[in-house]
Fold this sequence. Notes:
This protein is mainly alpha-helical. 76% of the residues lie in helices and 0% in strands. InterPro entries: DUF2164. Pfam families: DUF2164.
Amino acid sequence: MSKKIELSKEKHGHMILLIKNYFKKERDEELxxxxxxxxxxxxxxxxxxxxxxxxxxxxxxxxxEKLEDLLEIQKY
Length: 76
C-alpha cells in the first residue's frame, strides 16, 4: 500500500507561493492560486515519490557503509 506524500497547510501554501513567484520571474506569467496548486499537486503525486525513494536509498547506502565501519572496530 502506497502512502501519499502530505504537506502541512503552511508548507503547501508556501510552495504554492514559490511556484507563483517562479512563473512570474522566469516566464513572466501570472499564475493564480488554483493553477499553482494543480502544478504542486502534480509534482507531489508524480515526481515527489521518486525523490523520496532516492533519499531512502541514499540513506540506506550511507548507513550500510557506516555499519561496515562499525565492524572494523571489533577486537579479537
